[in-house]
Amino acid sequence: MNTAYKNANLARPSARQLKWQETEFYAQISYGMPVFTSTQYGSGLTPAAVFCPEAMDTDVWCEVVKSAGMRGIVLTVKHYDGFCLWPTEQTDYSVKASNWLDGEGDLVRMAADSCKRAGLKFGVHLSLWDRHEKTYGTGKAYDDFFCGVLEELLTNYGPLFTVWLDGMIGSDERRTQEFDFGRYYALIRSLQPDAAIAFMGPDVRWCGNDRGFTRADEWSPVPRRLGVDENGASAPSGGKKATTLMSPDIGSRKAIKDDTEFIWYPCEVAVPMRKHWFFDKEDKYSIRTKDKLLTLYYNTVGNNSCLMLGLSPDKRGEIPETDRQVLESLGKDLKTFFGANIVPGAETIEASSSTGGHGAKNVAEKDFDAFWKPSPSDKKPTLEIRFEKDEYFDKLVLREHIANGQHIEAFEVFVLNEKGKWTEVYSGGTVGYKRICPLKPVKTKAVKITFPAFRDEMELSGVQIN
Question: Which residues pair with 254 in a beta bridge?
């Protein structure tokens, strides 16, 4: 075993990364000045008085989000124009200077409280680039401003499950600002230690596009040089390493063979439900259909990633009715498709297991810390699930016990046909936190799953058949 391969096996998620991964599917709600100026990138010059939603009800936002099966909301609290959706003391460019609720409104408070009542997680998305703030581009003065903004958000709105730092900077911006990421991270860690820092952060990486495309195999242990440390510093690339976060392969044996340091850096897919992130009254036809959203869900949540789906309320503050209907239909399908697992109650038979209570029966448990671990000497572990009678299904879900790393490199799924022979119905590569395997509808009394390739020792925490 070479150094690269051995060290990649040692990468483990933090507690905050595990909690973030378990959120799986959540909304990003893009709302702010661009909605009122019919743009996607505000200028920072629009008077604050222009912001005035007439029918803002964040409880309804939560109802829509929950209807889709999502588990949280990430609110865009400050976009590139610099307008703040809470009455900040750091700038005069906020809801405090608007006509909404006579300047007494606080949209961040409303959303956070609604999420708490609805049992949803809450997070914030804010831009590093600020087209309004005069200190932007001056160095420490802007860092002081930004840390003041962060401190208000981190202390006044309850627990946050993620802080999404948007690092996009427009090509027309002439000012250059060196961001003190180490200072930002330290502040977040001290005030919200359970919050995963995403995008421009050390906890969660971007998938590489905003179209929802993921790799065939998403690895969470990746070379250290692809991420940043707690000071915001990247490791030197060293040698001829062409792999980037946008490369089609960043975790296979071939991709990591020249690396020696690794981090746990799981994948997040951020994609808008429509063509644009902010509401566009002219956009009547780009909405993703329920079937396209299902495919997106399978390819993200079902491929070792989290999905952050962008929703765009209109000027009134309402999520369009068409969007609401599609999301509700999606939620009904997800509940129907994955609501009834037939594995509990079935017989589980493993070819081998290690000591310590890690037998195959654990894959039917809801407890994430219960898992099946084959014997260390088993080079091709096999798991059989046998039913008392013929069962019909078209989906199988696997879950790896990622608390101890990601190790599975290949798996195969077989069903017992009417002649008593095993027929292969699916094969895949990585598993990670979750792998959804859509199947052609099958009727069988038994399923067999084999694992012909894995790194060191594998642990399977769950099998779901629907």
Answer: none
Enumerate the domain spans of the chain.
3-338, 347-465
69: left (phi over 0), alpha (psi -120 to 50) or beta: left
Beta strand segments in 171-301, E: 196-199, 205-206, 221-223, 262-264, 267-272
DSSP letter assigned to residue 157:
S
The answer to whether 303 and 435 are in contact (CB under 8 A) is yes
For residue 423, the tally of other CB atoms under 10 A from its CB is 14
**CATH superfamily for domain 3-338:** Glycosidases (3.20.20.80)
Q: Which residue has the tokens 């780009």?
A: 286
Which residue has 């292969």 as its token pair? Answer: 424
Burial 64-99 (b: 16+ CB within 10 A, else e): bbbbbbbbbbbbbbbbbbbbbbbbbebbebbbbbbe
pLDDT tens track, the chain, 466 positions: 566 678 888 999 999 999 999 999 999 999 999 999 989 988 899 999 999 999 999 999 999 999 999 999 999 999 999 999 999 999 999 999 999 999 999 999 999 999 999 999 999 999 999 999 999 999 999 999 999 999 999 999 999 999 999 999 998 899 999 999 999 999 999 999 999 999 999 999 998 887 888 899 999 999 999 999 999 988 766 544 567 888 899 999 999 998 999 999 999 999 999 999 999 988 888 999 999 999 999 999 999 999 999 999 999 999 999 999 999 999 999 999 998 999 998 999 988 899 889 999 999 988 888 999 999 999 999 999 999 999 999 999 999 999 999 999 999 999 999 999 999 999 999 999 999 999 999 999 999 999 999 999 999 999 999 9
Residues 418 and 84: their CA atoms lie apart, in Å, by 64
Give the CATH fold of the 347-465 domain: Jelly Rolls (2.60.120)
* Distance separating alpha carbons of residues 224 and 228, to the nearest angstrom: 8
* Under 8 Å between Cβ of 198 and 268: yes
Sign of CA dihedral 385, 390, 391, 396: positive
Instruction: Please state, in angstroms and rounded to a whole number, the distance separating the CA atoms of residues 87 and 371.
Output: 48
Looking at the DSSP bridge assignments, the partners of residue 427 are: 412
Taking alpha carbons only, the member of 297, 295, 324 closest to residue 312 is 324
- The angle subtended at Cα 366 by Cα 425 and Cα 436, nearest 5°, is 30
Evaluated on CA atoms 298, 299, 303, 305, the torsion sign reads: negative
Tokens representing 429 are 């590569």
pTM of the model: 0.96
The CA-based diameter of the chain, rounded to the nearest angstrom, is 76
